[in-house]
Amino acid sequence: MSPRKSVAETAATRDRIIGSALALASAEGLEGLTIGRLAADLAMSKAGVIGHFGSKEALQLAVLDAAVERFTLRVPARAVGARPGTERLARAYDEWIAYMAEGEGHGGCFLTSVATEFDGRPGPVRDAVLAALDTWTAYVKAEIDTGIGVGELPEDTDADQLAFELGGVVLAAGQSVKLHRDPQAPDRARRAVARLLGAP
Q: Rounded to two decimals, what is the model's pTM?
């Protein structure tokens, strides 16, 4: 086997492990991720699974990175073509709400679930979740500032407060989608976002 093929196969196996781990963690939580369950699902040895990461925490961080990448490609990346400001924010939140409603209508959002799971647990996983959410908040506030600058939002708009309220809508939508399995939750969330952004 050539070294190049070996590296490619190792990377492919690692990606396969992360994909399976992300699916498992989405259903059972990141802390519920076990090497034994992954090994069984993938028909691998426990040593074969953990050997790609070194520790359970490193695996959790790799899964979180994959989830952030998936979120980025699904939410802000799809809003790029919208006009900066409230239109782009509305598009981004619409994508996020649609993303939460996937998975037979009660998929929820992996990032917000992990944030709740790790909010009281100090350590690298919590730090990584916080960094990802801080990046999102900075994105939201930048679009709010743009909306204020072009007159879409009142000059006295409190960007921190508006970002907080928009975040509250997403948290409420996630709970209604995943816990209550309310089919009206996505529409309710979109109406709340539109009202906060001053849409007619």
A: 0.89
